[in-house]
Amino acid sequence: MSEMNRIDHYLSTDGIRITVADITDAAREAQEIHHLPSLSAVILGKVLNAAAILAMDFKNHEGVSLKWETNSPLGTIHADAYEGRYVRGFLEHPDDGCVPYAPDREADWISRKGKLFVTRYSLLKMPYVSAVDLSNSDAAACVSDYINSSDQTLSHVELEALIDGEGKIMRMAGFIAQLMPEGDRKLFEELFSRDRKWDLFDESGKENALSTLLHKENYVLIGSAPISFRCTCGEDRIKHSLQGLPQNEQNSLLEDDHIEIECHYCGKKYEISRETLMKWFNEKGGNVQ
Ligand SMILES: [Zn+2]
Fold it and tell me: How far apart are the C-alpha atoms of 288 and 185, rounded to whole Å?
């Protein structure tokens, strides 16, 4: 790995493109904000990491939103990566992931007859959604399957978490390798066969460390940015969505002297007074009494 809390984009002269992201602090922050037990924390961390590495077109500010229907007690997982450097996300039922995390059981929690919806957008592309049915495999293999079918390029994804004895995230990182159209297919298949696992945290030192590969002279760093957890919520967004509500729902919001809204993504609480609501609804040309 290159560095903690960074996303790096590499291109090799063999025509292999690699985007690697270490989102350790973002995954830890997500665990803290949402009070996640180990299994939920690892799975949300992996889905956040997947969103980050799928936003490969950093020059055109590609953003990626994942809606991961696990079909397990965890429910649906939401994760966004945007502006090439921010991630945010949450799980629908985090407390149901209370059993200890075990890598060989990951598929049971994430992909048993589940479905993954991916929205991608950039300066050049209008948002578009594609979906893939998940086969019984771990998060990384699910993302590989998605990208291989949607982009029709040979790709390989790995996602790796380290947790301590108390179930707290210690490290979270992942990468995607893609064969470019003119790339060396034989070499790609050797490097990124499905059963080969790269060491993302330089634990074993030599041979299998991804950083050793990326530091070879034919790999060029074409983009790099710090990465962190950040939400896009704010009063403006709340205002906009409340203004879009039907009249009867707006009226019922005015029954109390204030309303409380909590952001699913970051847990931030907003308290909005009746006066503010009145102002917002009237601004929009409504006729609330
Ligand atoms: Zn938020």
Answer: 64
Length of the chain: 289
Calculate how far, in angstroms, residue 270's C-alpha sits from the geometric centre of ligand 1.
10
Q: Are 66 and 78 in contact (CB under 8 A)?
A: yes
**Tell me: the pLDDT tens digits for 210-253?**
999 999 999 999 999 999 999 999 999 999 999 999 999 999 99
55 CA from centroid of ligand 1 (Å): 21
How close is the Cα of 30 to the center of ligand 1, in Å?
A: 11
* Residues, CB within 5 angstroms of ligand 1 (ion): 231, 233, 263, 265-266, 268
Between the alpha carbon of residue 224 and those of residues 79, 84, 118, 153, 227, the distances in Å are: 21, 9, 23, 23, 9
pLDDT tens for residues 129-171?
Answer: 999 999 889 999 999 999 998 888 899 999 999 999 999 999 9
Alpha helices, H only, 129-264:
139-151, 185-191, 210-214, 235-243, 247-253
Domains and CATH numbers, the chain: 6-229 (3.55.30.10), 235-283 (3.90.1280.10)
C-alpha of residue 233 to centroid of ligand 1, in Å: 4
